[in-house]
Design a protein that fits this description.
alpha+beta; 940 residues; 31% strand; OB fold (Dihydrolipoamide Acetyltransferase, E2P); single chain; five-stranded antiparallel β-sheet; 13% helix; 44 strands; six-stranded mixed barrel
Length: 940
C-alpha cells in the first residue's frame, strides 16, 4: 500500500482501529496518526517520547501544539490500551508526499516545564517535602499532579538556596535525600502523576506480574523477554567522609562504611574519602544516612540486568518476577523480583503503508538500526493485523533486583557560587543585630521575599579571631557586606568583608591620606574613631571618643572636622577630655621632659633626675652638718627620706626568658632600669610649674623636702601661716636672717618656755619713734662685767665691782611708789589627733560590731569593736601612720537558696521570639543557645 491507500483509509475514519499505538492530540481524532515511536523512561528521571506522525492537514501550525497535552495509547497483549500522557515540547515538520504531511512530536511529563523556570530564592527551616511542594505549585500543570510517598521524612533544612532552574533544583534535592520518582498515568489518558519515593518495595507490580523468558524464535511471544543478561560494574569498596561543625569544632565528625559484602573480589584500596563541606549534618544518625546513600547508589549500579522484550506492559515504576530463565531458576523468589530502572521502546505502528521517503530528523534511520541489530529475532517483535499490515514493537529493559536499594546517581550538582554582596538586616528598629558568635542576618540583593527577607545567621570573617581574643567590628543593619560561599556551596554563606555604597559612605574619603576605624553610637550620633593621617611631613594619629570629647592626639597636631584637615595646633601629643582623667601605674610613674637617647632608650631612664636628687641630697647633708655645728636642728630625717627616694629610682630588672615553653624570636632579653617602689618621679631640665586659680595642696605622712641649689622664694598675697606640731628651726650660714613687718606688730611668744636672743656681737633693741618696754613678772636682770641691775620683788639692786656713776640735772629719791604693768596671760593647748574607721562588705553595706586592732608607728596598740554602723572614732592617737586590722564579720552567714529550675520548652520559646519580631532566629541557632544553658542548676 502507498500514500494514496493511506489517504483513503484516513478518510474512512477507521485507521486507528486495532493499531499498536494510537495518539490523542488537540488537533482532533485521526488528524495526527502515529507512525514511528521511540520513547525512553528512567527511574528518577523524566520520560521522553518521540512520535513521527502523518496527517492530511497541511495547515497545522506547530506553535499550536507546543505545551499542549497529548496521549499515546499502547496496545497491550489483551488488546486493551495503556496511556502515556504528556505535554508537547517539540514539534517539527519533516516533509510531505503529495497530500500526506509528516510531522514529529516530542512530549514529556509536566516536569519538563521546570527546565524553563529559573529562580533565586531562600528556603528556611523547611523540609525537602515542603520545598518541593512550593516549587511544584509554581507550575500550573503540576498542581494536583504529584505525590510524595517516602518512608523516611527529611529533616528541616535551616537554610536552602535555589540559584538555578527548577529542574536542577528539585532533582538535586531528591538525589541528596536518596529519593527517586516515576509516573502514573490516569486510565482515561487525560493526566499523569509524579510519584516520589525512596523504596523499591513501594512500586507496583507490572500487569502481568510474571514475565517469562523465551529464546528468540520465529513467532512472537506476548509479554516475554527474549534476551536477559547481567552486568557487574566495578565500584569503590568503601566510602569515608568528614565534615566540620563550627559550633563544635573539636568534635570529629567522620563516617566510614564498606560496600555490601557480596560485591565480589573488589580491591580493598578502592576507598573514596571526601570532605562533604562544612556542617553537612547535625547528628550522627543524619551523618550515617547521608553516607549510606552514596554507598547504596554504588551498590545499585554495581549489578544491573539488561533485557530485550516484546512485552508492552514493561514500564518504569513497576517490578516483575522473572520466570523460566536458566540462570535464575535456582534463585529464591525474592531474587527473581526485578524493578525496571530504565526502558526504551521502539515501535512502528502497523499502519497499511509501505516504505516512505526518509526525511531528515525522522525516526526511520534509528528504527532501522534497531531492527537490523535484532534481525535474527525479528519474528519475536513483529506485530501483524488482519489486513496484513506489519508493525514492530521492541523494548530494551534495564533492571535491578528489588531487594537492592535504588538511588539515583548524584548527577545534578549545586550551582557554584561566587562573590556577591548583600545588605545587613535586623528586626524592628535594631541598629545592630547579632548573637554570641557575632553572626549577622543579611538580605541577598536577589531575594524577592516580602518583609525582612533575612538569611540564616551568617558568620563574619574578622581580621583576627580566637578564644577570648581577636578583633570585633560587627556589621550593622543597612551596611553592604561581601558574601562568599564555603566551597562554592550555595547553602553555606559567609560574610567576608564590607563595602561602601551610596547610602553608607566612608567617613574619610577622596584624599586617600586618612585611614583608620570609626564606630557609631547605638541609637545616637556619638562615635569613637582611630584615624591615621599620612599627609606628607604631617604624620599623626588620633584616638577619639565623642563622649566627653576625649582624645589622644599624636604626632603633627591639627584640627580635624570629619574629612576636613584643619589648622596646625602643635607637635608631639595631646591628651585631653571634657570629663575626668586619671593616670595610674601600680609600680611607679615617671614624668620627664628630658630627651631620651633615641628609639632604644629605656622606659625609666631617669639618670638626669637621679643626678639632681643626689645633688639635692648632698646639699641637704652639708647644710644639716653645718647647722648642727651651729646648734641648729639637724635635717637628718629629711636627708634620709630623700636618700631613700633617690635609691628607689634605681633598680635592675631582667627581660623574661620563656625557656623551652615559649617563643620570643631571640628578642626581649637583657636588663633595664626600674623603680624599687611605686614612686612618682617628675623631672624637667627647664623647670616645673604648678598653677591654679584656687589652692595647691601638698600632703605627706612623713616628710616634705624642699631643696634648691640657689634660692627658695616664697611670696604670699596675704599671709604666710605655719602651724607646727613640734619645732621650727631656721639656720642661715652666711648672709644672716631678716624678719620684717612693714605694717603691724611683730609678736614673738614662747608660751611655755624661754625666749633666748644671742648674738656674737651687739644686740640692738630700738624703737625709732616711741619707746622700749621691758616687763617681767619675776624679775629683770641686766648684767655686764660683773656689775648688774636686778629688778625683782618691788626692789632694785644696783651692784658693781667698780664705780657706779649716776649723773643728772636732778635726783629725786622720794618715798616708795610702784607702777603696775599688765602682763598677758598666755594660752595653753594640746594637740589632739583622731582616726576614723569605716568597714563595708562587697555590697557596700556596713559591717556592724566587727573587731578591730590599730598598731601605730610608735608601737601603741588600740583595739575594740565597731558600732552598729560599722564605724568608730579614735581620739588623741599618736602621731604618724598606723595599720588597721579587722576581724571577721560578726553577722551570721545565710546562704541564698537556688531557685527551682525554670522549664524552657524550645518550641514555645521560638514561638514567643517570632511573635516579638525576631524572625531571624531559627531552630538551629536556638538549639545552640539551649546548649549554652545546659548544666545550669537554675535552667531545665
Amino acid at each position: 500500500m502507498g500514500a494514496q491507500d493511506l489517504i483513503a483509509l484516513i478518510n474512512s475514519g477507521l485507521l486507528q482501529s486495532d493499531r499498536i499505538v494510537k495518539l490523542d492530540t488537540p488537533a482532533g481524532p485521526n488528524v495526527l496518526l502515529p507512525h514511528i515511536v521511540v520513547g525512553t523512561a528512567r527511574l528518577g528521571g523524566n520520560f521522553e517520547i518521540t512520535v513521527d506522525v502523518v496527517s492530511l492537514q497541511d495547515s497545522i501550525e506547530l506553535k499550536s501544539l507546543i505545551a499542549q497535552p497529548v496521549t499515546l495509547w499502547i496496545q497491550q497483549s489483551d488488546k486493551t490500551y495503556r496511556p502515556r500522557h504528556g505535554y508537547v515540547h517539540t514539534a517539527r515538520r519533516l516533509g510531505a508526499d503529495g497530500r500526506l504531511v509528516s510531522l514529529q512530536l516530542i512530549f514529556s511529563s509536566w516536569l519538563h516545564f521546570l527546565k524553563f523556570r529559573k529562580d533565586a530564592r531562600i528556603f528556611q527551616d523547611q523540609t525537602v517535602e515542603a520545598i518541593l511542594e512550593t516549587v511544584f505549585q509554581g507550575h500550573r500543570q503540576a498542581v494536583g499532579a504529584y505525590r510524595i510517598e517516602v518512608s523516611k521524612p527529611s529533616p528541616a533544612r535551616s537554610f536552602c538556596v535555589q540559584y538555578e532552574d527548577d529542574w536542577n533544583f528539585v532533582h538535586r534535592l531528591m538525589e541528596s535525600e536518596g529519593w527517586f520518582y516515576y509516573f502514573e498515568h490516569a486510565d482515561d489518558g487525560k493526566s499523569h502523576t509524579l510519584v516520589v519515593t525512596d523504596d523499591l518495595y513501594s512500586l507496583k507490580p507490572l500487569e502481568p506480574e510474571q514475565v517469562r523468558f523465551y529464546r528468540a524464535g520465529v513467532t512472537r511471544q506476548p509479554d516475554a523477554l527474549v534476551h536477559w543478561s547481567g552486568t557487574r560494574t566495578l565500584q569503590s569498596t568503601s566510602y569515608s567522609t568528614t565534615t566540620f561543625d563550627y559550633k563544635n569544632p573539636e568534635a570529629r565528625k567522620e563516617k566510614s562504611f564498606p560496600t555490601v559484602a557480596n560485591q565480589g573480589e573488589l580491591p580493598q584500596q578502592a576507598e573514596v574519602y571526601e570532605y562533604t563541606g562544612p556542617y553537612t549534618y547535625l547528628d550522627d544518625d543524619r551523618g550515617d544516612r547521608l553516607t549510606k546513600l552514596k554507598l547504596e547508589e554504588w551498590e545499585s549500579r554495581a549489578k544491573r540486568f539488561h533485557g530485550i522484550a516484546s512485552a508492552p506492559s514493561i514500564d518504569v515504576g513497576g517490578w516483575f518476577s522473572l520466570l523460566d530463565h536458566p540462570e535464575h531458576d535456582g534463585d529464591s523468589a525474592e531474587d527473581r523480583k526485578f524493578a525496571v530502572v530504565e526502558a526504551t521502546w521502539y515501535i512502528r505502528n502497523n499502519l497499511p503503508v509501505g516504505e516512505t521517503r526518509p526525511y531528515p530528523h525522522s525516526l526511520d534511520a534509528r528504527l532501522a538500526e534497531v531492527r537490523d541489530a535484532h534481525e535474527e529475532s525479528a519474528p519475536a517483535f513483529a506485530v501483524n493485523d488482519a489486513s496484513g499490515s506489519e508493525g514492530f514493537f521492541l523494548v530494551e529493559v534495564e533492571a535491578q533486583r528489588q531487594k537492592v536499594p535504588f538511588r539515583s546517581p548524584f548527577e545534578h550538582r549545586k550551582p557554584v557560587m561566587h562573590l556577591q554582596t548583600a545588605t545587613v538586616v535586623g528586626p524592628g528598629n535594631e541598629e545592630v543585630y547579632t548573637d554570641s558568635l557575632n553572626r549577622i542576618l543579611v538580605r541577598m540583593h536577589w531575594d524577592r521575599r516580602e518583609g525582612i527577607g533575612a538569611t540564616c545567621w551568617v558568620r563574619v570573617s574578622y581580621s583576627d579571631t580566637g578564644g577570648g581574643y581577636g578583633s570585633v567590628h560587627v556589621p550593622r543593619v543597612g551596611e553592604e557586606v561581601t558574601i562568599e560561599w564555603l566551597g562554592g556551596d550555595c547553602d553555606r554563606p559567609i560574610a567576608t568583608g564590607r563595602v561602601y555604597n551610596g547610602a553608607t559612605q566612608p567617613r574619610w574619603h577622596s584624599n586617600g591620606i586618612l585611614s583608620g576605624f570609626s564606630s557609631k553610637e547605638y541609637g545616637g550620633n556619638g562615635y569613637n574613631h582611630l584615624v591615621m593621617d599620612d599627609a606628607t611631613g604631617q604624620n599623626r594619629l588620633q584616638l577619639f571618643s565623642s563622649q566627653g570629647s576625649s582624645m589622644l592626639h599624636l604626632g603633627y597636631l591639627i584640627t580635624q572636622d570629619g574629612n576636613v584637615r584643619g589648622s596646625y595646633l602643635g607637635s608631639g601629643f595631646d591628651l585631653r577630655t571634657d570629663a575626668y582623667g586619671a593616670i595610674r601605674a601600680n609600680r611607679g610613674l615617671f614624668l620627664t621632659t628630658h630627651p631620651g637617647s633615641g628609639a632604644a632608650h629605656q622606659q625609666l631612664e631617669a639618670r638626669q633626675a637621679q643626678q639632681q636628687l643626689t645633688s639635692a641630697h648632698n646639699l641637704v647633708e652639708s647644710l644639716s652638718d653645718v647647722g648642727s655645728q651651729h646648734q641648729a636642728e639637724s635635717l637628718k630625717a629629711g636627708q634620709d627620706a630623700l636618700k631613700a627616694f633617690t635609691d628607689a629610682t634605681t633598680d635592675n630588672v631582667q627581660g623574661q626568658d620563656q625557656g623551652s615553653g615559649g617563643r620570643t624570636a631571640g628578642g626581649g632579653t637583657g636588663a633595664a632600669n626600674a623603680f624599687k617602689k611605686p614612686i612618682l618621679l617628675a623631672t624637667s631640665p627647664a623647670g616645673i610649674a604648678l598653677s591654679t586659680q584656687r589652692s595647691v595642696h601638698l600632703g605627706a605622712d612623713e616628710h616634705v623636702n624642699v631643696v634648691s641649689g640657689q634660692s627658695t622664694h616664697i611670696a604670699a598675697g596675704k599671709s604666710l601661716l605655719a602651724s607646727v606640731a613640734e619645732r621650727i628651726s631656721l639656720f642661715a650660714q652666711n648672709a644672716g636672717m631678716k624678719l620684717f613687718a612693714a605694717k603691724g606688730k611683730v609678736e614673738i611668744q614662747a608660751q611655755s618656755d624661754n625666749i633666748e636672743v644671742t648674738a656674737q656681737k651687739t644686740v640692738k633693741v630700738l624703737s625709732a619713734t616711741e619707746k622700749v618696754e621691758v616687763a617681767a613678772s619675776q624679775g629683770i636682770l641686766l648684767t655686764s662685767g660683773g656689775a648688774y641691775i636686778r629688778i625683782q620683788g618691788g626692789n632694785i639692786e644696783i651692784h658693781a665691782p667698780g664705780k657706779i656713776d649716776i649723773k643728772g640735772a636732778q635726783h629725786a629719791f622720794a618715798g616708795p611708789t610702784s607702777a603696775p604693768y599688765d602682763l598677758p596671760a598666755l594660752p595653753k593647748g594640746d594637740l589632739h589627733n583622731k582616726l576614723e574607721l569605716n568597714l563595708t562588705d562587697d555590697n557596700l553595706k556596713a559591717v556592724p560590731q566587727a573587731p578591730y586592732k590599730v598598731v601605730f608607728e610608735n608601737g601603741t596598740t588600740l583595739a575594740g569593736k565597731l558600732d552598729g554602723n560599722g564605724h568608730a572614732v579614735l581620739r588623741d592617737v599618736p602621731d604618724g601612720t598606723a595599720k588597721v586590722f579587722f576581724g571577721e564579720d560578726a553577722r551570721p552567714f545565710t546562704p541564698q537558696p537556688v531557685p527551682a529550675p525554670t522549664e524552657l520548652a524550645q518550641p514555645d520559646v521560638l514561638k514567643e521570639l517570632h511573635a516579638a519580631g525576631h524572625k531571624g532566629i531559627t531552630e538551629e541557632n536556638l538549639y545552640s543557645l539551649f546548649n549554652k544553658f545546659s548544666g545550669r542548676p537554675d535552667v531545665k
